[in-house]
Amino acid sequence: MTPLKQATVLAADNQLTRMLNQQMSAAPGAQPAAPSGDDAMNTPTKPASPQTYTGADAVVACLKHQGVEVIFGMTGGSIMPVYDALFRDGEIKHIIVGHEQGAAHMAEGYARATGKVGVVMTTSGPGATNLVTGLADAFMDSTPMVAITGQVTSNLLGNDAFQEADMRGITMPITKHNYQVSSVEELPTVFAEAFFVALSGRPGPVLIDVPKDVMTQPCGQLLAAPSAPTGYKPPYRGHPQQIIRALKVLREAKQPVILAGGGIITAGAEAELKELAEAAGVPVTTSLMGLGAFPADHELCLGMPGMHGTGYANLALNRADLILCVGSRLDDRITGKLDQFAPGASFIHVDVDASEIGKNLPCLVPIVGDAKPVLREMAKGAAEWDAKPDYSAWRQQIDQWKERYAMCFATKSEAIAPQAVVQTLGQMLPEDAVIVTGVGQHQMYTAQFYPFKKPRTLITSGGLGTMGYGLPAAMGAKVGRPEAEVILIDGDGSFLMNIQELATAVRYRVGVVAIILNNNFLGMVRQWQELFLDKRQAETELKPPPYADVATAFGGLGRAVTSAEELAPAIEWARKEAAEKKLPVVLDVAVEREALVLPMVPGGAANVDFIPCPGQTKED
User: Fold this and answer.
1) Is residue 613 situated within a structural domain?
2) So what's the pLDDT on residue 1?
3) pLDDT reported for residue 2
């Protein structure tokens, strides 16, 4: 949902608002009709009159007003009043997790799969600090999330009270905005602002810290009209003159490339991107976060650039004379050695966050705005050109690079190649299947060899690179889109880090399939040790538990896969069981232990100096 549409939805006088206003305007002491029979046993107890509303009731009402359907979290001392209000209200689903970090990643997965705000809630102190990794991850990847944390009572703030932690101070650098509520009267406005901020402009996490006494104070107002904080006006449409200028520069280019990032998916601008690329005839490369924004099988697609990007994407960017960068931070994993990235190119940079434009590289044409309306205008302008630019020589050169540096991998007859597992999944799964990854070699194999064709079909930790992200994020995605097939591709090291959430998946019947590419190593670190540290494998060899048995012990299903012949049948079995039994299914796939992720740009090198796929040699 775009920020504009979200703001419209938030401002609507919905049924909940009317119902609560009617309750609040009722005569003092008025009682709702008492339920009878079975209804009396199943209906949560609600406050009897306006005088009995508390801050906790206001929190729940605000969440319902924002359309929140599910919360991931963990109860505890300081947050208990809100959990009690949730229980009495009974309308919002709550998923209690094994660890608060898992809850944060579930909220991220939910948000990334649906485009809605993910909500996580927990208690003060260690419960709140356990959210820090998830908040930092959401901040880096522009994921809309609202975190609600309980806090010690206001009179104890700053006294090092039991389970006190300064959550505003701790999370200031890793949230888009945060609040500590000082009175019950602030709650409606704070919650309205928080959801607006989380989803509008460049999305991100917002934290609301609520002292326990605020939750228990009487509350005379439950809702407020949603509004942005004073002075907060995120841009939407790019400046018309800058768009005209960008089209002129694009038309004059000889070797242009479009670099599309995750901002395309956030803005829902994949159709506009495709329209512009086809109208102008410009090849497209997509960052890790942008995979799915442009069809992998399109003739103009260059795949992913950067450290583990395709050779032809890196060569195209290196030789380009113009790069149209849309919704990408141009981070170090894309650019490699910054002063040697695209040395002959000028940049058109489109981003909703003005601070990203010119941050890493100088920009010829800056356009501050949402990708969707900007690309729509650019596509319209390109379609009206009286003659399309002649990029035939440029396209021919790229086709030669594609042939010379086609993606491939080495195989050993006695082992399952991890890349082959990803390819097999790409052949078996529907285009709208949601693929989630942890962080490591398996993540890069997925980015390189899975044919993403639709947006919101890849959910991964990009900026922070959080191991342990995969399982809870996959669960959040499945909760948000229960009709979708959700497949987790994980590594044996990453999967172990939040393995306790298997119990959560069993408890709530979350039918995700987890495919573990098990090489008994922290594989990406081992790869660097092999290539750059004379194969000194310092603390990277693992002896993970039998994951299929572990899944069964948690109440799920599991199967070990040790040969290539077993792979496809095992995947079909796992998909069928997860769908029918609504349980997590784990496939523990023994893959080649020392396989490398190639291509690869060595750390600190220029992207043009990539190590190619096996059997390929670099041109001079």
Assistant:
1) no
2) 38
3) 37
Give average pLDDT by consecutive 10-residue segment, the chain, 620 residues.
35 34 33 34 42 89 95 97 97 98 98 98 98 98 98 91 95 97 94 95 97 94 72 88 98 98 98 98 98 98 98 98 97 95 98 96 97 98 94 97 96 91 98 98 98 98 98 98 98 98 98 98 95 94 96 98 97 98 98 96 95 88
Same domain for 385 and 443? no
Spatial contact of 206 and 176, defined as CB atoms under 8 Å apart: yes
Which pair of tokens denotes residue 92? 């919002």
Whether 100 sits among the annotated catalytic residues: the reply is: yes
| Whether 461 and 380 share a structural domain | no
Task: Report d(CA 292, CA 229) in Å as an integer.
Answer: 33
SS (H, E, C) 517-544: EECCECHHHHHHHHHHCCCCCCCCECCC
| pLDDT of the residue at 230 | 77
Quick check: 472 and 490 in contact, CB under 8 A?
no
> What CATH number is given to the structural domain containing 552?
3.40.50.970
CB atoms within 10 A of CB 35: 12
Mark whether 201 and 245 lie in a shared domain.
no
Side chain identity, residue 70: V
Domain contains 411: no
Which residue of the set 5, 162, 299, 532 is catalytic? 162
> Among 524, 554, 577, 600, which one carries the catalytic annotation?
524
Considering 74, 100, 443, 577, which one is annotated as catalytic?
100
The answer to whether the beta carbons of residues 236 and 373 sit under 8 Å apart is yes
Residues linked to residue 459 through DSSP beta bridges, in sequence order: 436
If asked whether residues 122 and 208 sit together in one domain, one would say: yes
The CATH code of the domain that includes 329 is 3.40.50.1220
The catalytic residue among 23, 163, 340, 500 is 163
Supply the pLDDT for residue 10: 35
φ/ψ of 465, rounded to 5, equals 65, 60
Annotated active-site residue 524? The verdict is yes
How, if at all, do strands 70-73 and 93-96 pair? parallel
Is there a domain that residue 222 lies in? Answer: no
Q: Is residue 369 part of a domain?
A: yes
Within this chain, do residues 305 and 370 fall inside the same structural domain, yes or no?
yes
Domain match, 581 and 443 both = yes
Segments forming the whole domain that contains residue 20: 3-216
Residue 21 pLDDT: 36
- Strand blocks (E) in 184-227: 205-211
How many domains does the chain divide into?
3
Beta bridge partners, 119, equal 146
| From 212, 274, 372, 453, the catalytic residue | 212
